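Data availability (excerpt). The following record was deposited with the supplementary files.
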Amino acid sequence: MNTLTIDIRKAEPRDASAIAEVHQQAWRGAYSGIIPHRTLTSMINRRGVDWWANAIRRAATVLVVEIGGTVAGYATIGKNRASELRQQGEIYELYLRPEYQGIGLGSRLFKAAKARLADHGLRGLVVWALEDNHNALAFYAGNGGRDIAEGVEVFEQKALKKVAFVWND
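Predicted structure:
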């Protein structure tokens, strides 16, 4: 019998290649047909191995979820960037490789990210998701988020609504 271990930890520079791969796969899966193709490709290409290695070395907090030694997903977290919202923490990104979605890893990574923000003294949490990303909306609502604000992101003159989910802890 083989047992797979699941580990959630702070990313290290050696994880940059795996995170770049997760980013590319997850973003194509989540945003193809939502964000215009040219813009999406450009956004993905900007975040290669070097970009992630620098993000990990900088002050950015990047967490990874590893299953059986494979990086299956990542989250980036920090201070809330939306001054109009009173929550102090923010999950900027939370993505999994498509083949690891729907089995509970995202919820585990979400809880770990939320706990890490609380450990850093950041009370409350906000996460933004594009309104057309129905999987993300269902995920955050299913994890107890309240949809309280809207915003707009513009991609190649295409305005897309985004939704803020909050948790008050």
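Summary of structural features: The radius of gyration is 16 Å.
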